[in-house]
């Protein structure tokens, strides 16, 4: 039987990079391999108890069973504004400058629909979270990639962007602390990006999913710590990695009423908001963002990172040293492509690594590890990789 043809926008889509990896993993598992997955950035640690309990209690109230407010509960938006104030010293009006998201991926996927016209350029980091470029294309935008390389600590060289691209660009995605590299941007770079977007009338979408997952002295900044950023930027915040809540689907966007309002217009026509009980639990989470029940997980990720870095040092493999995120970005240690190296390691050892090329062409030659298994298993995984070099 012949099938109805898919629309061009999905026919031309490259297969989701993680789908091939999942398939290879299933095959290795079926072949009897003991799989250790360092592939996907999904916390193995549970959501803190106090958040789970708040959710349990909230679901008992029938008021939470009805359609939620499109923009998010007033008390949730208030808690988000409070968090931005307590953590970064920022002022946001909860009524007009915050909108709840069904996970920040939802906001990232929808924002191009609000600001990008067909033919507009969208500046996307490479390597980068794949949703930036796909969502931009869905909106008819033309993706212009900004290479992230070690010489500029994995921040883009904005001066290298051609004048005609800058003139035709409508949106730029940035993400610090960065997935997949773990890089943290300096305030100087963020200030440069804000000035660039202001000069070229570009909306800067800052994906801040890992702002809390850091264990060094200095806490990673919000884009809004830069003077004038509110004129040009919107920031996506996620509770997923911060509170080990990936399955819950809750986050928020912050920005000027104009920018948040544009995203809100798309959302009211697509979704009907985040489950009230989840928002009520998320309020508890945001109110206690600096509680040890929350921050102790960052220490665990930090210890795993140091352990893994020691092993990479012994293996003489180069990597980006970082104090943030639960990713470790290292050089592919053989002459194979990153995808071939990942495929061979999986087949021979059962260890799942993500090839850097899954995040863009510039990621070729690199590998990403997610530090989302217990330390013992992590050490074992690295020992298995070492036998295959
Ligand atoms: C995990 C992740 C997200 C998505 O987070 P959700 O809030 O769970 O949708 C967004 N951006 C980056 C860079 C991520 O790694």
Top keywords for this entry?
single chain; 389 residues; alpha/beta; Aspartate Aminotransferase, domain 1; Aspartate Aminotransferase, domain 2; 7-stranded mixed sheet; 3-stranded antiparallel sheet; binds pyridoxal-5'-phosphate
Characterise the protein shown here.
This protein is α/β, with parallel strands linked by helices and 389 residues long. It has 2 domains: 8-37 and 294-386, Aspartate Aminotransferase, domain 1, CATH 3.90.1150; 49-287, 3-Layer(aba) Sandwich (Aspartate Aminotransferase, domain 2). The protein has helices at 8-11, 17-30, 49-59, 74-88, 104-115, 131-138, 163-168, 187-200, 257-270, 276-287, 292-314, 338-349, 375-386, and strands at 36-37, 98-101, 121-126, 142-147, 169-175, 203-207, 233-238, 251-255, 327-331, 351-352, 354-355, 366-370. The radius of gyration is 21 Å and the shape is globular. The structure holds pyridoxal-5'-phosphate. Pyridoxal-5'-phosphate binds at residues 41, 103-105, 129, 175, 179, 207, 209, 238, 240-241, 246, 251.
């Amino acid at each position: 039987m012949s099938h109805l043809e898919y629309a061009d926008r999905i026919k031309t889509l490259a297969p989701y990079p993680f789908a091939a990896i999942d398939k290879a993993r299933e095959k290795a598992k079926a072949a009897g391999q003991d799989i250790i997955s360092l592939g996907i950035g999904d916390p193995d640690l549970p959501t803190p108890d106090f958040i789970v309990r708040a959710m349990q209690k909230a679901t008992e109230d029938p008021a939470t069973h009805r359609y939620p407010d499109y923009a998010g509960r007033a008390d949730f938006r208030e808690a988000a504004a409070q968090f931005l104030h307590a953590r970064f010293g920022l002022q946001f009006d909860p009524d007009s400058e915050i909108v709840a998201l069904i996970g920040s991926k939802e906001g990232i996927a929808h924002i191009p629909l609000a600001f990008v016209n067909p033919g507009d350029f969208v500046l996307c980091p490479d390597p980068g979270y794949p949703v930036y470029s796909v969502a931009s294309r869905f909106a008819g935008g033309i993706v212009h990639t900004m290479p992230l390389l070690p010489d500029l600590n994995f921040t883009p060289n904005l001066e290298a962007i051609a004048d005609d691209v800058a003139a035709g660009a409508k949106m730029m995605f940035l993400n610090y602390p960065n997935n997949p590299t773990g890089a943290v941007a300096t305030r100087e770079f963020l200030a440069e990006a804000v000035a660039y977007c202001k000069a070229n009338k570009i909306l800067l979408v800052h994906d801040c999913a890992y702002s809390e997952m850091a264990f060094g002295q200095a806490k990673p900044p919000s884009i809004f710590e830069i003077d004038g950023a509110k004129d040009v930027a919107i920031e996506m915040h996620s509770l997923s990695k911060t509170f080990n809540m990936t399955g819950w689907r809750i986050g928020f966007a912050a920005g000027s009423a104009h920018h948040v309002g544009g995203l809100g217009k798309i959302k009211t026509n697509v979704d009907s908001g985040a489950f009230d009980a989840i928002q009520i639990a998320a309020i508890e989470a945001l109110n206690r963002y600096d509680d040890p029940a929350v921050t102790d997980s960052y220490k665990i990720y930090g210890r795993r990172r140091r352990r893994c870095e020691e092993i990479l040092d012994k293996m003489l493999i180069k990597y980006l040293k970082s104090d943030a995120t639960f990713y470790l970005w290292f050089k592919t240690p053989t002459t194979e492509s990153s995808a071939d190296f990942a495929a061979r390691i999986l087949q021979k050892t059962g260890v799942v690594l993500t090839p850097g090329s899954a995040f863009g062409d510039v990621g070729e030659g690199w590998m990403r590890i997610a530090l989302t298994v217990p330390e013992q298993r992590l050490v074992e995984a690295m020992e298995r990789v070492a036998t295959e070099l």
